[in-house]
């Protein structure tokens, strides 16, 4: 029986792992980013809520013989089953049940699967994976040509997150405890990826320094990981994109400088203490600034991600974010309009928020009014522009950059409004 794993746009790490599991169970399995490819059984890996509304994805699901969906979208399976014509949805970690789905052809006694029966959604209880050391992933020939923020692939070193950020699905999907892979398992995987032509790898799993966590941050485990990976790939080909400001220190940052491309990305989110409290971020503007300054003293460049349009964000809150950027002098800036991902506390919060109080639906009345943006989109656009002037070496915003930032803000606003429509449609399963 031919099984095809389809991961639209990019190869998700989970899709590679599922491919390896099926291959080692003796299945004829292939993995592709092409929505024109189907098998007798198809596993569709989706990482974004907006993919559920993609006409190509919807048409692909409708035309498939037997198809199951997995990935973060499975957090609220009622939405997936309501929007796509599929046989079942994997609600959590799928590597231990993928082969059963393919071989049995029925979902009823497989843990962690949702499916429709008699017009109702039935869900079986998921079982977390206890041992993350897995078989060698299925590595497609063209993985080496993929580019995700400068890396060919993001590899997973651990699962879970200690944080409780209201906008994040990681602790809801993987739990609040930390489960780490062994160093040998990770290194064997990276050696094989290199043999297959992969040159640039990013260490993922949420907060990178939680690898090896056992009640406290295991600095030695994390530093040993970076040193060993750099020995395989070379420091210029290794990155550790995501860090929490409260899980770094001088020793960790020195290892990042020595063994990687020399960048960290902090989820700063806002310069307003009130908004950070509302997000349950677990930090303050002062702690964020201290971490940025420490990284710079260690010779590490810092990218900061920000969220605008969060419920309750006032003009004063947004100004505090601009003020923070001016003081922090970040090397790069990313901005997102607050997206209420189904299954997160933020999704419930925005459903209880009157539409007239949601910045995504408020008309911009300030300097950007001629651009016909919402207030949230205008703040996203403005923050991206502001970030150019707050770098160590300020950059001039030319016409191309201006247009790209404007398009980015508009697309984000459009996509989040589409997610809002889904939330309203499936309100009973969200709140």
Write the CATH architecture name of the largest domain.
Answer: 2-Layer Sandwich
- Helix-strand string: EHEEHEHEHEEEEHEHEHEEHEHHEHEHHH
Give the % helix: 25-40%
Main sheet record: 7 strands, mixed
Mean pLDDT: 93
**Rg from Cα:** 22 Å
**CATH topology assignment of the largest domain:** Transcription Regulator spoIIAA
Cα(first) to Cα(last) distance is: 41 Å
DSSP summary, beta strand count: 16
Tell me what you see in this structure.
With 431 residues, this protein is of the alpha/beta class. It folds into three domains: 2-123, Cobalamin-binding domain (Rossmann fold); 139-261, Transcription Regulator spoIIAA, CATH 3.30.750.210; 266-272 and 282-431, Transcription Regulator spoIIAA (2-Layer Sandwich). Helix content is 37%, strand content 16%. It has 14 helices and 16 strands. The strands form four sheets. Strands 2-1-3-4-5-6-7 form a seven-stranded mixed beta sheet, sandwiched between helices. Helix 3 (77-83) links the parallel strand 4 and strand 5. The radius of gyration is 22 Å and the shape is globular. 48% of the residues are buried. The mean pLDDT is 93.
């Amino acid at each position: 029986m031919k099984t095809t794993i389809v991961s639209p746009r990019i190869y998700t790490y989970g899709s590679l792992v599922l491919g390896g599991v099926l291959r080692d169970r003796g299945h004829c399995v292939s993995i592709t980013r092409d929505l024109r490819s189907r098998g007798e059984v198809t596993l569709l890996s989706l990482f974004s809520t907006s993919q559920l509304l993609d006409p190509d994805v919807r048409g692909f699901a409708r035309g498939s013989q037997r198809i199951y969906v997995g990935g973060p979208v499975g957090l609220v399976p009622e939405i997936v089953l309501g929007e796509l014509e599929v046989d079942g949805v994997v609600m959590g970690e799928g590597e231990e049940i993928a082969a059963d789905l393919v071989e049995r052809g029925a979902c009823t006694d497989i843990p962690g699967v949702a499916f429709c029966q008699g017009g109702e959604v039935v869900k079986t209880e998921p079982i977390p994976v206890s041992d993350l050391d897995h078989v060698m992933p299925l590595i497609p020939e063209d993985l080496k040509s993929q580019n995700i923020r400068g890396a060919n692939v993001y590899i997973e070193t651990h699962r879970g997150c200690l944080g409780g950020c209201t906008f994040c699905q990681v602790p809801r999907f993987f739990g609040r405890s930390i489960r780490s892979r062994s160093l040998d398992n990770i290194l064997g995987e990276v050696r094989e990826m290199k043999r297959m032509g992969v040159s640039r790898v990013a260490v993922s799993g949420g907060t990178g320094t939680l690898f090896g966590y056992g009640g406290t941050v295991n600095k030695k485990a994390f530093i040993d990981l970076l040193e060993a990976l750099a020995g395989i790939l070379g420091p210029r080909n290794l990155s550790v994109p995501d860090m929490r400001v409260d899980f770094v220190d001088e020793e960790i940052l020195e290892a990042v400088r020595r063994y990687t491309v020399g960048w960290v990305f902090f989820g700063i989110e806002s310069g307003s203490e009130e908004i950070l409290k509302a997000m349950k971020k677990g930090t303050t503007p002062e702690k964020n600034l201290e971490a940025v300054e420490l990284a710079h003293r260690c010779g590490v460049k810092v990218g900061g991600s920000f969220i605008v349009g969060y419920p309750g964000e006032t003009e004063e809150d947004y100004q505090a974010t601009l003020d923070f950027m001016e003081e922090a002098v970040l090397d790069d800036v990313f901005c997102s309009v607050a997206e209420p991902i189904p299954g997160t506390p933020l999704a419930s919060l925005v459903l209880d928020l009157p539409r007239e109080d949601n910045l995504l639906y408020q008309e911009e009345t300030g300097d950007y009014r001629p651009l016909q943006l919402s207030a949230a989109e205008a703040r996203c656009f403005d923050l991206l522009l502001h970030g150019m002037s707050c770098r160590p070496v300020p950059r001039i915003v030319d016409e191309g950059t201006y247009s790209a930032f404007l398009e980015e803000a508009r697309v984000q606003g459009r996509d989040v409004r589409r997610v809002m429509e889904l939330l309203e449609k499936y309100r009973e399963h969200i709140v």
